[in-house]
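tokens incoming
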């Protein structure tokens, strides 16, 4: 049986998960905590409610993640400038540097991965992978709404 594109994507996903587990071994960072840091890196300081929405988890779940990240020096909580009831979560300077390095590492790994593709095929891969991700997101959203 010839592997489908989905078989290859699942394999890639497994490899990325293994690499992430290896990369954060010995640290207090779990996949869920890294997701919080990633959202803060890309969206900037956020309320816990906004984080919960971005991560598609409960506010209680985010509170626990933020508690742990704050205790380990990755994030800080500050009062919201306009809403007395809200708290803003932001990366610490050290975490921002770490996340910036992670982005540089991602760019380098992306370049290394693309080296496996012939130069003339790279533009198609660079267009195709985001298109596949967008279609999968659309199909998942449709399936969730059908429930």
């Amino acid at each position: 049986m010839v592997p489908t594109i989905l078989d290859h994507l699942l394999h890639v996903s497994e490899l990325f998960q293994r690499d992430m587990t290896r990369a954060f071994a010995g640290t207090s960072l779990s996949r869920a905590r890294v997701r919080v840091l990633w959202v803060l890196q890309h969206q900037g300081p956020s309320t816990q409610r906004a984080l919960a929405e971005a991560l598609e988890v409960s506010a209680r779940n985010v509170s626990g993640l933020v508690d742990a990240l704050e205790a380990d020096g990755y994030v800080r909580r500050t009062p919201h400038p306009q809403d007395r009831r809200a708290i803003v979560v932001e990366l610490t300077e050290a975490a921002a540097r770490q996340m910036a390095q992670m982005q540089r590492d991602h760019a380098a790994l992306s370049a290394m991965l693309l080296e496996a593709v012939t130069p003339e095929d790279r533009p198609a891969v660079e267009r195709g992978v985001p298109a596949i991700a967008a279609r999968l997101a659309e199909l998942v959203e449709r399936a969730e709404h059908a429930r």
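note: The CA atoms of residues 13 and 108 lie 18 Å apart.
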